[in-house]
Amino acid sequence: MGRPGFWISIHPFPDRIVLDEKGIERFNSYIREVLSFTREILALEPYFDGEELKRKLKKHLASFQKRKFYFRNGEVVPYSFYREMEKYMALNGIPERIKVRFGIVVKYADERVLPTRLGLYREKGDEIFDRLQNSALDIGTPVAILHQTEDERWFYVLSPLDEGWVESVKIGVGRRKEVEKFLKKPFVVVTRAKADVFLNKVMTSYWDYIRMGGRLPLVRINSEKVEVMLPYRGEGGILLFRKGFLRRKDVHVGYLPYTPRVIIEEAFELLNCPYGWGGRCGEQDCSRFIQMVFATVGILLPRNSSAQAKTGLLIKEFTVEDSLEKKLKVIVEKGVGGITLLHISGHIMLYLGSVEGRPYVIHSLWAYREGDKLREVKRVVVSDLLLGEKSLLERVDSVRIITLP
What is the per-residue pLDDT for 127? Predict the structure, then answer.
């Protein structure tokens, strides 16, 4: 059960194309245009409403002042911290109409709720769940820049999946046409958990890494390595490009075909990879795990588990009155291995299939409760749905297949 081949061997149609290229385009368009869970960066209007942005940033700040938070050292976050943040965000400098600037991420970048590297935690002693960690962006991600801090060390950006504060040194600022040209070139997509990026052909000058599902424009390729178009930040922060090199075995030219086999194999590439809340330390939480796997076939799923649970073809939504037997029957009989998402409050999982009537999933899991003990897992694992004191099966509230509704 710990190998993809096991689940592929019991799948009824592992190599059937679920959605072709045009179907995936329609699916992504549905997520973007109908559900409004993602955005097309280059489709943004030239100007953004400054008052709307100001309200949003004030709301983000106010949400943290409603309850007690702690710094990593255990000290309570004082009210003065939020006053300093409000000043630092230079809200009074936001014009009524913001001229949108564009850029590309040049180094792996944390996307923060507030412009600071300091972490805020709900529990004293917690060092994992930094509530300011919104997401993380890979090299090559296009962004729209709306605002900056008073010292211009942080940009507030819109990304295809989310928005937040990113350190300005991680972004090369360019013209819309430059970003568009970059995105329209033939590309390679990363199909391993991570791929190292180098600056020289012999691959000894390390630059950074890019996670599964990330893509870069292809220049040339041979049996051992690929040369890509690598964005970087030049003098004055401008967007420039240079040669970059990756191992051939870490990437695929263009997207992979969307079949159950491919999704299962890609999911198992991440098996045992560490859990990372909001992409911390280059790792993945439950929803980022799902997003990365499906990104290899060109499907742009939303960033958060609650939004992912509203995406695709609904098989069943459960209520508290539904019995475990009913849930089990629906999942085993109607779930399709590799392309079905199971959601519980705050968590999402990829269904693999069932063995002797018992359903199994692969997911990025921090921990589960067993009696009065918290069993820490902290990695991507394969488990059945009976895991935990209150089992995963008992808590499943929706079943969806990632295909057109």
Answer: 87
